[in-house]
Give the backbone structure.
Amino acid sequence: MLEREILDRAARRRPYGRDVRLLVTGGAGFIGANFVHHTVVQRPDVAVIVLDSLTYAGNRASLASIDDRIDFVHGDVADANLVDRLVRGVDAVVHFAAESHNDNSLADPWPFVRTNVVGTVSLLQAVRRYDVRYHHISTDEVYGDLPLDDPRRFTEATPYNPSSPYSATKASSDMLVRAWTRSFGVRATISNCSNNYGPYQHVEKFIPRQITNLIDGVRPRLYGAGRNVRDWIHVDDHNSAVWAILERGRIGQTYLIGADGELDNRAVVRLLLEQFGCDPADFDFVTDRAGHDLRYAIDASLLRSELGWSPRFGEFRDGLAQTVRWYRDNQAWWRAGKASTERNYAAQGETTLR
Ligand code: NAD
Ligand code: TDX
């Protein structure tokens, strides 16, 4: 559909006879695409407009099977005029769009500043102008990292202490949301989630990179000593939490999203090797990431107790097996980006250590 037509429809209220009009930024990316699929299936009362600039990380094919159920606008969240025209016609915005990969932010921070910081301001100005409900998607990385042997986990009260250019821009965007809420009364909520896994995740990220390596008979690659801990959550559990916050969250509140999924990277690789029937020692250590955060861990008590949310995916092993199946069954989706991703890693200086 022509962008003009979508804008016209967005400018009029509820042209489909549906109850809620929702603008989803970054809806062609990993979590955003899963959110749009989830919404189309679970919430037929919601009309979805996706705004996505289709960077290397955005993939139109992720939405192909529901194309007739959504409106898609190819555009930039930092384009304040476009954002203003779109926000004017909706009831709520969920802002997923971001430059999301730590390694890329170390190589070139500028796109991160533009999309994550300037893009957020452009949305905040528009939701302020039209008094539109806004939900901001963020990350646990804003809190920095925790020691390995430490009972503490991140809570909503943990001070911000970001390590990478990526997490510093996400922390900045959270601060901007808080400022617009306090100073201008914007009706916003924020969620900070831990590491997601599941279908449609770009092959640059840890789990899909190792799965697609294994499909191609290449050994998984662990940064440093592989001892870094991430707190894994299935993307569908992240998105059900986002819906709980959209519907029942307190305005101005931050909610941490996590599913008690702490594992070190070696353990994840061992589980993958097991699922491919390989020897558990069949992996390589490669150059560590600069400033590599040691451990993330989320305490999601507030989300659970106040909003009654709980994750549906119990066993990480099962969610991982489902994800492996998805990458085996959807090779056309990821093959196009695999070689260029690996060239990127090589150009960033990644070498095998032992
Ligand atoms: P992704 O990189 O897979 O997708 C990002 C999407 O945003 C892509 O479709 C891309 O084309 C789009 N985009 C980028 N710049 C844009 C711009 N200027 N204008 C419009 N669209 C643009 O990212 P993801 O992993 O799906 O992450 C989505 C959000 O969730 C991000 O805000 C990220 O910080 C946050 N988050 C991610 C994780 C995770 O584990 N992946 C965990 C917590 C929070
Ligand atoms: O090849 C690899 N080998 C490896 O050991 C890659 C790509 C990563 N790693 C390690 C680095 C991390 O310790 O695996 C862990 C996960 O790495 P990423 O997938 O790059 O995720 P991370 O840096 O933890 O950030 C992710 O979670 C928080 C998302 O990319 C962010 O967008 C989100 O905010």
Summary: Residues 100-102, 139, 141, 195, 205-206, 209, 221-223, 228, 230, 265, 289 surround thymidine-5'-diphospho-beta-D-xylose (ligand 2) (CB under 6 Å). The longest helix spans residues 110-130. Residues 2-200+233-260+295-315 form a domain with the Rossmann fold fold (CATH 3.40.50.720). The CA atoms of residues 223 and 289 lie 7 Å apart.
